[in-house]
Amino acid sequence: ETGDSLLPALDTLAEYYSARESIKNRLLGIMFYPLLLAAVATGSGVIALWYVVPGFSSLYRVLGTEIPAATRWIFAASREITPVRLLAAVILLAVLLGSAGWLLAKKAKWQTLAKLPLVGTIYCYWFCKVSAMITASGHTLEEALRMTATVSRRGPAPAALAAIREGSSLYSALEGSPGVLRSFVAQGERTGELPMALTKAAEYYGQRLEESMENFQRLLEPLSVLIVGGMVAAMLLVLMLPVLQLARVF
């Protein structure tokens, strides 16, 4: 309401929230298959420990085969992993992961987040998108940063706002941010076209974000299959070691 272009600002704000929801849904979609695969593999492994491994243990005991250390460890795990202990381990793991995620989301500084793959790109995109929209609507840079900090609290806006209020330029206030972002800002301040520079930066980070998510998906899916397949193969190999030793004897 304090700007000169309320309707364009609302359109851009709606576009921002739509883009943020799209990014969130895209990331959830990328993570769904690996998480499902990990859950199925974990469940299958637990069932194998409870019902398959004891059968091998009884068989090798009857045959009197020398059991390697790795196989003995699997047999011991099948005896020690009870439903209660498994549930406790799952709860503990969930608490640890939740605590780590909370600390990263709430306590990590922007300089740390900026260096994380994909995370830094997302925050830079949001910062540029919202800042460009607000400055183009007739607001001052300080007002734009204040509103941007409200929308994206973990990005560079809060620290930049504090520095701007102390008299720094936006380029100096973004110290610790990616060099590409600072280059766009420096060019905008030098030419007096900061809203345009931020818009171009938002376009750049939007394209980079799309490429990063595609690369992340292409890497994550085969990597998860490789890890799960390797774990299954390793477990089968360990269980079959006594048979291989027995075959060498004969």
Could you report the average pLDDT, rounded to the nearest whole number? 83
Sum up the overall morphology in one term. elongated
Let me know the largest β-sheet: none
Query: What is the subunit organization of this protein?
Result: single chain
Model regions low in confidence, pLDDT < 50 over at least 5 residues: none
Query: Which fold does the CATH topology refer to?
Result: Receptor-associated Protein
Q: How many independent structural domains?
A: 1
Structural class: mainly alpha
Order of helices and strands: HHHHHHHHHH
Work out the radius of gyration. Answer: 27 Å
> What's the architecture in CATH terms?
Up-down Bundle
What percentage of amino acids are in beta strands?
under 5%
CATH class placement = Mainly Alpha
Q: What is the count of β-strands?
A: 0
Helical amount among residues, as a percent range? Answer: over 70%
How would you explain this protein's 3D organization?
The chain has 250 residues and is an all-alpha fold. The chain has one domain: Receptor-associated Protein, CATH 1.20.81.30. 84% of the residues lie in helices and 0% in strands. The protein is elongated and about 85 Å long. The model has no long low-confidence stretch (mean pLDDT 83).
Which key terms come to mind for this protein?
250 residues; mainly alpha; Receptor-associated Protein; 10 helices; 84% helix; 0% strand; elongated
